[in-house]
Every structure is written in C-alpha cells, then in structure tokens.
Amino acid sequence: MRFPATMPDSIQQEARQILDTLAFTNFEQCHPLSREFLGIPATAGLYAFRHSSEGLLYIGKAKNLRDRLRGGHKAFLWGWLDRYDPKDVRIAFVTLNQWQKPGLLYELETLILQASNPPYNVKIPREL
C-alpha cells in the first residue's frame, strides 16, 4: 500500500500506523457488532469494518465513534446483502487525541482510503 507523496511525511507516517492498526489488529481483538457499541469510545477517530477472512470492508472517520455506529451504517446493509455472518464482521478503531488539528481526521482518512481501497467505500452502481 502506497501513500501519495503530496502529504507531509509526519501525516503519512501517522496514516500508515493507523492503517496497520485497522488492518492487522488480531480479528478477535476487534469489537463485535452490537446495538449499543458500548466498548467503542465516544471520541474522534477512524474505524474499519473487517471480515474475518476477507479483510478490510470499509474505512471511515467520525467525531464520535460510538454515535456514528449506533446511528446505522451502510456497511451493515452491504454486509447483510453480501450474506456475511455477523460473527465474521468486527470493527477495529483508532482514537485521535483532541489536541490534533480538526482537518487531520479528513486528511488521514483520505490517505488511508487511497492506500487500501476497501470495497464498501465505493458507491453501489445503479442497475439500469
């Protein structure tokens, strides 16, 4: 996975560390799907829906991780449409410190998406 050279090295390094955490944390240590997501903090961060064997499905950012997941998510619907067993889908996340600049969340997400290209981060093509 390559990152564009247009971003400062420090942001690229942070994006690489976050992507490594999202993609390579042991699946069993990732948060299982639930209604309340109580084990996920109500802070800013990046998150990933992961499948036990297919890897990254979706990567996103949120100012409040728990509220973002509680409010519903297209990845739930797409996983259901793809007939994934909910036991095979979990959520990995990385929280960001509050002192970091507000635009950093967007920059990090952009770099991580460009480097990983998860299938659920693309629009569903319309059928004609």
Task: Please describe what this structure looks like.
With 128 residues, the chain is α+β, with helices and mostly antiparallel strands. It has one domain (9-120): GIY-YIG endonuclease (3-Layer(aba) Sandwich), CATH 3.40.1440.10. It contains four helices and four strands, in the order αβββααβα. The chain has helices spanning 9-24, 65-70, 74-81, 104-116, and strands spanning 31-32, 45-51, 55-62, 89-95. A four-stranded antiparallel beta sheet has the order 1-4-2-3. A hairpin with a 3-residue loop joins strand 2 and strand 3. Helix 1 (9-24) crosses helix 4 (104-116). The longest helix is centred in the first third of the chain and has 16 residues, at 9-24. The chain starts with 8 loop residues before the first helix and ends in a 12-residue tail after the last helix. The relative contact order is 0.24.
Order of helices and strands: HEEEHHEH
Percent strand equals 15-25%
Reported CATH architecture: 3-Layer(aba) Sandwich
Task: Name the helicity range.
Answer: 25-40%
Number of self-contained structural domains:
1
Radius of gyration: 14 Å
CATH topology: GIY-YIG endonuclease
DSSP, total strands? 4
- For the record, the CATH class is Alpha Beta
What is the CA-CA span between the terminal residues? 34 Å
CATH superfamily: GIY-YIG endonuclease
Shape: globular
What profile does the largest beta sheet have?
A: 4 strands, antiparallel
